[in-house]
Amino acid sequence: MSVKIHTVSTQVPNYFKETKDILPFVEAWMTGQESRLKRKALKIFENAAVDKRYSIMNPEEVFTQTSFEERNRIYSREAIEIGEKVLLKALTKAGWKADTLDYIITVSCTGIMIPSLDAYLINRLQLRQDIVRLPVTEMGCAAGISGLIYAKQFLQANPDKRAAVIAVESPTATFLLNDYSMANIVSAAIFGDGAACVLLSSEENSTGPEIIATNMYHFFDAEQMMGFELTNDGLKMVLDQQVPETIAAHFPKIIHPFLDKNKLSIEDINHLIFHPGGRKILETVEALFGEMGKNIDDTKEVLRLYGNMSSATVLYVLERFMERQISQNEHGLLLSFGPGFSAQQALLKW
Question: Is the pTM of this model over 0.90?
Answer without folding.
Answer: yes
